[in-house]
Give the backbone structure.
Amino acid sequence: MPHINSEASIPEEKLIWDLPLRVFHWSMVLTVAIAALTGYFFEEWWLDVHVYAGYSIGCLLAFRLIWGFVGSYYSRFHTYPVKIKDVTLHLKSLMRGKSEPHTGHNPVGAWMIMVLLSSLTLLIITGMVVWGGQENQGPLAQLIGYKVGDFSEDIHEILANILMFAIAIHILGVLVETFVFKHSLIKSMVTGKKATTDTKASVTIWHTLRGAFIFGLILTGVLYWGAIAPSPFMTETHVFPAYKQECGECHPAYHPSLRTASNWQAIMNNLSDHFGEDASLDEQTTQEISTYLQANNAQSFDTEVSHKIGRHDTKSMRMTDTRYWQKKHDEIKDSDFKHSSIGSKVNCNGCHQDADTGRYDDEKIKLPKGVKS
Amino acid sequence: MKSFLMLGIVAISISLSLPVSASPLLDGYAQAAKAELSSFDGFSAERGRVLFNSTHTTGKVATPSCTSCHTADPKKVGHTRAGKEIAPMAFSISASRYNDLKKAEKWFGRNCGSVLGRKCTAIEKGDFITFMKTQ
């Protein structure tokens, strides 16, 4: 329970925030900042950095949730003054322009921690679902379908907005406490010390060791999980040799997941006038490739690109005429497509290093030097 | 064991003594050329060179000449209109190009249409290959 100083006793500097808690807090500040920056502002090829930040946040969160039960006194959740009565009292005094000093968290602050920790937890869960379902990566890649991943992305974004709002209030609250009510909360989160008459906190070196041990266990577990988790499925292996050979002679052999069955059929039916070129094949090869494309097209692959580009028929048959393709490339100038290592819009491999696999992972995009997005 | 070894030596010496046909394609095209033109008396590298280098007006606007994609130097790498590299045509660099009749027919079929606006004759195909053999 919060300890409110009585006027009679003389407060003295005491260690109330254990070292693991403080390290957790500032690591969280750093990793959330990276995740937020890459998530909100950076181009998609920063997705891997975003995801690494996410994994780090996940480890930190797991630690914090355990530490809430086995940490030092004020780190434990049961000491949080979260009763409605405490909160209303606290709010009322705030209205009167007062804020009683609390040794641990104050009631509004304690609620804030709950909101932050739970929204972060949900962000990590939804993030992993997006990573597995939409991007086909990470440990959930083979468990979660594209649609679930795509839906989860919306939830992830809403949660991110909630988190940003909560962080803003959290910072505002700390600033008000620090500068208006002169409770040096920021300094306390650095040194761990607060002026208090409290006798409950008894932070020792053992807390640091225990914290390091628990975090070490979590980290080992996560790294091991990452190592044993099934690798994301590769779609390159699906590509039929005759298709790869014949179609790949003049242009990159586009992955079959990039067009619909009907667009593929139309293309195969008109090879003698293939976007202005004569690309005729003998009857047997034409038949073999047509059969392959009827069985392997956008509908057969559960990847992001198959859903957003592949499954949309275009009159021209070109994938560059799909709305999603155009939206994704609208900042790339025509002159950039003529860059010596791209050539033209037909050469997906110019920037998408994994184009042959049909994965088109965000982090596999590498713009050649001189091309700006 | 010994007999196998002997058999192997015999097989190798026979294959070595066989005349090496530099381009199996040419024999076939020569036969077809005779059928096309009774006065046919062999392929000409010079006619092939002219065919390769000249500009035609009967084909597609984007590809008036073989050199539009293959470049004027057969020893150099060319580019498809989609930007993909084409291995050099010169026999000294890409001899393996001239082993597969099906492949040769596929490309003569496509490219004669694009550049000349018609099919190539067997004589033209043979001249072309003969020219490339000198390169």
